Amino acid sequence: MSKEKSKALYSEALKFMPGGVNSPVRACRNVGRTPLFIDHAKGDKIYDADGNEYIDYICSWGPNILGHGREEVIAAVKNACDRGLTYGACHEGEIELARLIQKHIPSMEMLRLVNSGTEAVMSAVRAARGYTKRDRIVKFEGCYHGHSDGLLVKAGSGLLTGSIPDSAGVPKGYTDNTLLARYNSEESVRDIFNAYGDEIACVVVEPCAANMGVVPPKKGFLEFLRQITKQYGSLLIFDEVITGFRLSLGGAQNLYGVTPDLTTLGKIVGGGMPLAVYGGKREVMECVAPLGSVYQAGTLSGNPIAVSAGIATIKLLESIENLYSEIDEKAERIETAMRESGLNVNRVGSLLTAFFTDKAVVDYNTAVSSDKEKFSGYYSYLLDNGIYAPPSQFEAMFVSYAHSDEDIEYTCEIIRKFGR
Ligand SMILES: *Cc1c(COP(=O)(O)O)cnc(C)c1O
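A: This is the predicted complex of the input protein with pyridoxal-5'-phosphate.
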């Protein structure tokens, strides 16, 4: 496989963009490779600038649950383009998309369309603070909620001190109100609430974590978060940017049967276009401007092209029979192959991660115990065999409806041969 064109493009890109990329994980630095430049993608395949073909298990980090370039979605986008790219004004599509979302996620009684997952979570947290008139928030180590200041934190000296920024450029004061708990640890959450319960505006959590690799919630964990937030008058925010329309049409909240106060969506809901959503309880969302005093706005929010892609995608997800059981079954086949080759796998639905540790991965500490060198070797092995998987231990592998039986079978064969 020649990589000459990708390499040449990469050295050009390095002149213009930090690390040659517009989002850091794409630089493939953790795995000691250079990025492939993509020419086009279709179905379950992605093609680089040198004409190499790969089976894609990144799926744009989640949006492409139907694979690349699904006909109906492309047609909807083309049709929308003919009617203008942006109005900065109300249009009927916004209502149609909102209605579809609410039909499947009824806890989103009112919602707002925004442009990225980062913006959705940032705005949901602001609404929670405005509604509760409290400042502190709780998040979990290893959960990712976008790159807004207050959510880019790492553990301070102890659980009960404010966290410290996990990025240069974030003033200490911006993270003082962010308290960091351990995923799947009821005790860590209880300790924080014992100390600060009446000051906590919200707990924000990935109901199934997928940004430290896939880490499912332990039985009872989400129910516990529901109960303790209610007890203290705090709000529970499910960040379903990955899990929404992924784990089921109704997302993780439907799968696990726990209802949050606010939900954020992104990735799939935009059908491959930049669109995200936050919403939830009516009385909370009524705090948002112009009804209330929580300010939030967006020039391109509700963009008609993005909305058309979202509507077309959700309608397909509704209409394709057995879609979720089929993609879950495909992912299960890959999981089985991974186990046969001795890997430690976490899988929930069509999300899966192989870890290189003997420990059960249940939180951030156990996730980072994975051997990074072994992961890099595994990544390179897959890539060199035409399998495009995430270049980071802490990202999920995404299976789509477009993954063909043959391609799944080929992937399983390659994985079974790993390390032999
Ligand atoms: C991807 C992601 C985000 C951020 O979304 P962007 O569109 O990249 O800003 C937030 N939360 C979760 C759970 C995500 O996976």
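The first strand starts at residue 38 and ends at 42. The chain has a mean pLDDT of 96.
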